Amino acid sequence: MSPAPEAPTAPSDVLLILGGIASVQVSAAVATGMFDDVGPLGATMLRALLAATLLLAVVRPPVRGLPPGALRAVVAYGLVLGVMNTAFYLGIDRVPLGTAVAIEFLGPLGVGAWFARRPRDRAWAGLAALGVLALTRPWSADGADPLGVLFLLVAAACWAAYIPLGGRAARGLPGLQPVALAMGVGALVPLVPGLVEGGADLLLPHVLLLGLVAAVAGSAVPYALEQLALRRVAPGVFGVLMALEPGVAALAGLVLLGQDLSALTLAGLALVVVAGVGVTRAPSVASPDPPPPPAPPLA
Predict the structure, then answer these.
(1) What are the C-alpha distances in Å from 234 to residues 1, 6, 40, 245, 275?
(2) Is residue 63 part of a domain?
(3) Dihedral (Cα; 80, 42, 99, 110), 10-degree rounding
(4) Looking at the domain assignment, is residue 144 inside a domain?
């Protein structure tokens, strides 16, 4: 029996998902406004701590009496989340936002290509790698900062691990409980280095305000919008829209941070976006435990 065709996607649902993606990238752009005062580690710590506090207060997940398996899954999920956000903020301190998100997107794109297990999907991954080369230009003196790229590759690896770990945690606890608990665990990763780097400047009113905006825009808003949309949108459509994230990030960097977009940068972004759409839409071989569609980074 052939699979049932996907139901048409309402324009309002597309706008909800794109709104969530834009919110995440606005959060990242806003967070860079704290870097001069508290550094990327201080900004990561403040944003993660505020986001975790908000989610834990709203969701109110159980802290005691969790099954051991669920607890291990949440802790692993949270640690990967914390390292991912920390590495991403360290990366965008050195690399333009659009390029940074394109590099980080190699993580979920690679997972999609791996589970698809078809030569065409490996070719899509190779196309994305070419796009990242065009973005970073390692052969050029004005190419992307190597240390920044390294941080972003760490974030990409964490995003790849975040997909199966998030799915495992979601199977152990209902609703947003695993996300709220994982955010609490993840906030511990940058806590000490963030306090050391940020110091007393973390309490400056404008820093706290920027941290709150970054926390809300990076967590509460995209989660709410995606939850509304995912009830009606097919996973394949969701994945294609998520593949647009590097382009949205580049637009946020251009509008909010004044970061230039050269012709080579636009070409690299286009290759990454096309590869992401290709991997998502290509028919895949059935897997006993397929990964969920990639979610946006919580940065």
Answers:
(1) 19, 6, 36, 18, 19
(2) yes
(3) 0
(4) yes
Q: Residue 16: enclosing H or E segment and its boundaries?
A: helix 11-32
How far separated are the first and last CA of the chain, in Å rounded?
42
19-46 in b/e form (b: 16+ CB < 10 A) is: bbbbbbbbbbbbbbbbeebbbbbbbbbb
The number of domains in the chain is 1
The list of the chain residues with pLDDT below 70 reads: 1-9, 112, 115-117, 224, 226-239, 280-299
Residue in 28, 152, 159, 26 with CA at minimum distance from that of residue 90: 152
Share of the chain above pLDDT 90, in %: 33
Residue range(s) defining the domain that contains residue 150: 17-281
- If residue 183 lies in a helix (H) or strand (E), which one and from where to where? helix 177-186
- In tens, the pLDDT along 87-116 reads 999 999 999 998 998 898 888 777 767 766
Q: Which of 128, 111, 105, 164 has the alpha carbon at shortest distance from 271?
A: 128
